Amino acid sequence: MSADTSVPAVAEPAELPLRRGQRSREAGSPVLPARDEPPDRTDARIVARSVDSPAAFAELFDRHAVAIYRYLARRVGPQAADDLVAATFLVAFERRGAYDLDRADARPWLYGIASNLVGRHHRDEARMLRAYARSGVDPAAEDGTERALERADAQASGPAVAAAVAELPPEDRDVLLLFAWASLSYAEIAQALAIPLGTVRSRLHRARRRVRAALDADAGRLIVTEESDHG
Fold this sequence. Notes:
Number of helices: 10
CATH class of the largest domain: Mainly Alpha
Low-confidence stretches: 8-35, 143-156, 220-231
Number of domains: 2
Strand content: under 5%
Number of strands: 0
């Protein structure tokens, strides 16, 4: 049985077993389950326990909320990301009874829900990518040193990449960003988006080709500009 990552209309329940008032960006570094983690400590076991003990679901939030927040902040901006993190875990909580317990790692499931929610925020994402294209600054980076390094690295390619990503079809953009920003494998992306592995490969290949073409075009413009400046 595959985990359902589709997103229904989200209604706030009477009580959600997450840290009330805790903003995802304040949760500290995410604690990801180790590959050799004991079976009773996997994400799947946490989800299973939460069916009868809803408060147990808070541990899944503690493990993954920051990583989900950073992914969403890059796509729709920090403010919208806060709301979407809460919505992601709310949907996951409501769907926990249908989770495939053979899948020890819940990250693909959570990223799939988050990506589907992003689909309702196309304008926010387009605005975020345009801002990223102009500044080259990762909106999920909060450390000043990291931001400074990103500005330096982005001067040549960052704006072109962000602009190219903004022009991708949504389905190609989801695959590319789950691979590049969420660090999911091809198989995990297929699981997250409920699509065949071959479709992941074809969409990622198409997205990479378009981004590479944008970078090549940007490099060509840079060479022409430099030649004009020194002509």
